[in-house]
User: Which sequence fits this backbone?
């Protein structure tokens, strides 16, 4: 199904009151965003995915989490690793975004997840293997 058709379906459902709580609507929006990102990953995300496949590391891309809050991470390496990999573009250097990222990382750490942040530039410069050490 085309992404535009999925958006139309979401809008129709919302108009009919299908998402009767903010929580349900947020989950639906996150699912749409995840689908979009899976279909059009950045070059850096594709390079990380190739690295993980090449090294036979089990992962999920654009993984959605409902708790502690609705978030989609770029890559999730499930148990026993419990690692979240975030591929950050230049906009993550902005003060407000950077502080939000730091807060998210603290929450993930409290839940037992390790977060690895790697920038697009680091990936394009070939630093993936040095940073993604498990």
Assistant:
């Amino acid at each position: 199904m085309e992404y535009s058709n999925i958006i139309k379906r979401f809008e129709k459902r919302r108009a009919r009151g299908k998402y009767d709580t903010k929580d349900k609507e947020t989950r639906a929006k996150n699912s749409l965003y995840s689908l979009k990102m899976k279909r059009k990953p950045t070059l850096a995300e594709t390079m990380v995915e190739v690295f993980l496949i090449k090294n036979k590391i089990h992962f999920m891309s654009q993984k959605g989490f409902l708790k502690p809050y609705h978030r989609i991470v770029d890559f999730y390496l499930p148990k026993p690793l419990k690692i979240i990999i975030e591929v950050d573009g230049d906009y993550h250097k902005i003060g407000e975004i950077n502080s939000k990222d730091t807060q998210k990382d603290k929450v993930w750490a409290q839940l037992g997840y390790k977060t690895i942040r790697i920038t697009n530039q680091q990936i394009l410069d070939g630093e993936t293997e040095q940073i993604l050490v498990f």
